[in-house]
Amino acid sequence: MHQTTFAQPAAIQRRWHITSAKGQVLGKLAVRIANALSGRDKASWSPSVDAGAFVVVTDAEAVVLTGKKETDKTYRFHSGYMGGITELNVATIRASHPERIIELAVKRMLAKTIQGRHQLKRLKVYKGSAHPHAGAKPAPL
Predict the structure, then answer these.
(1) What Rg do the C-alpha atoms of the chain give, in angstroms?
(2) Is 29 part of a structural domain of the chain?
(3) Shortest CA distance to 104 belongs to which of 115, 89, 114?
(4) Mean pLDDT across the chain, nearest whole number?
(5) Which of 126, 134, 135, 123 has the alpha carbon at shortest distance from 38?
(6) How many distinct structural domains can be found in the chain?
(7) Domain of 46?
(8) Does residue 73 form part of some domain?
(9) Whole-number Å distance between alpha carbons of 19 and 92
């Protein structure tokens, strides 16, 4: 009989990964990032233990959206007040804060729990190719 093993929080080794968003499709990139952040790419994954890695994404302004999503896809935000809804399309967000496109795609793929919010804090997205995490020696995603 085989014993089921569970990841122990004390034995977690957090790795660092880096990827460039240049020329990559947003959805496929976000799936790979979300799996790395939640630890689903490890053989020792268990849903109750956050064993995910840190992920650094560069060149966020060069991510690709297929079809007519650049103009037709809208993001809705609500302030909480009456009539406080704001709708922005991808082109507007890309012009001001291109890293938010990737952050929102990954955020909506992670769990809507405290654990998912902790995982999202390990995502580092940058507009250009420069990033301050070279000391962590990130491996390619």
Answers:
(1) 17
(2) yes
(3) 89
(4) 93
(5) 123
(6) 1
(7) 15-65+98-140
(8) no
(9) 24
Cα separation, 32 vs 105, in Å, equals 11
Query: What string of DSSP letters covers the chain?
Result: -PPP----GGG----EEEEE-TT-BHHHHHHHHHHHHHTTTSTT--TTS----EEEEE-GGG-B--TTHHHH-EEEEE-SSTT-EEEEEHHHHHHH-THHHHHHHHHTTS-SSHHHHHHHTTEEE-SSS--S-GGG-PEE-
Tokens for 24? 């990559």
CATH of the domain at 20: 3.90.1180.10
Record the pTM.
Answer: 0.90
- Residues 67-125 pLDDT 10s: 999 989 999 999 999 999 999 999 999 999 999 999 999 999 999 999 999 999 999 99
d(CA 23, CA 37): 21
Residue 91 included in any domain: no
Q: What's the CA gap between 79 and 44, in Å, rounded?
A: 40
Question: Which amino acid type is present at position 57?
Answer: V
Give the model's pLDDT for residue 10.
Answer: 81
β-pairing, 74-78 vs 85-89, is: antiparallel
Could you tell me if residue 72 is inside a domain?
A: no
